[in-house]
Amino acid sequence: MTNTPINARDRIVVALDVPDRDSALALVEKLSGLVGMFKIGKQLFTAAGPALVSEIIGAGEKVFLDLKYHDIPNTVAGAAQSAAALGVSIFNIHALGGSEMMRAAVQATQNLQVRPAVLGVTVLTSMNDASLAEVGIPHKADEMVVRLATLARDAGLNGVVASAKEIRLIREKVASENFIILTPGIRPSWSASGDQKRIATPAEALRDGADYIVIGRAITDGKDPRANAERILEEIDK
């Protein structure tokens, strides 16, 4: 865990997996003050662009820019600078891009007065051992996560994105403190798993050592996202 205490609300990152600006802003308004951060991924960023990121930050909210940069080092360095200039709190890059690419992202942001956390994506929560074998990676998912998390740490990243199933392994084998673990694939006990394979409940993930948990449909689907978030907070506190 990080040294700075984080309360349960601030640990929740809501995925704004919606198609347009108006839908995103409606969710931000409903959930403001109840959750710690909002995730903007490829769908919403492609539709609404950097202006929406700035608008949400300008309203006093924090943003995790989930674009998973994966390219040659120079290109990723430029993207890192642009993400930092938007004022996001966190952005991510694919650890599979290698050490040189990850170091380029770190170096591009290290001299900024306000520096976002740079996290390395390990293995997507939609993948498992069979998925990795299909693309020619002859290692189990947990082995690859530890390998990539170690590369990310050594390259100077602030932490990783990893499933709840590997949180304890990362804490034991890679870094126990001051290394952020942001965990997607979070499903409350009453929610469907959807297309995720390596999942956990919010309470399980936080108990095992996640710093932040990403929750999407379990909060945003339905008529009352705020009530859904409150229900999750109650589940965490049990």
What this model shows, in words?
The protein has 238 residues and is of the alpha/beta class. The chain is 45% helix and 15% strand. It has one domain (8-237): TIM Barrel. It has helices at 8-11, 21-31, 42-58, 73-86, 99-109, 129-134, 141-154, 167-173, 202-208, 217-220, 225-237, and strands at 12-15, 37-40, 63-69, 90-94, 117-121, 159-161, 180-183, 212-215. Strands 1-2-3-4-5-6-7-8 form an 8-stranded parallel beta barrel, surrounded by 5 helices. Helix 2 (21-31) packs across helix 3 (42-58) and helix 4 (73-86) runs parallel beside helix 5 (99-109). The longest helix is centred in the first third of the chain and has 17 residues, at 42-58. It is globular.
Short description:
Helices cover 45% and strands 15% of the residues. The protein has eleven helices and eight strands. An eight-stranded parallel beta barrel has the order 1-2-3-4-5-6-7-8, surrounded by five helices.
Strand order of the largest sheet: 1-2-3-4-5-6-7-8
Low-confidence region ranges: none
Tally of separate helices: 11
Strand content: 15-25%
Give the overall form.
globular
- Total tally of structural domains: 1
CATH class: Alpha Beta
Rg, Cα atoms, Å:
17 Å
- Mean pLDDT, to the nearest integer, reads 93
- What is the rounded distance between the termini? 21 Å
Strand-and-helix sequence, N→C?
HEHEHEHEHEHHEHEHEHH
CATH second-level architecture? Alpha-Beta Barrel
Structural class: alpha/beta
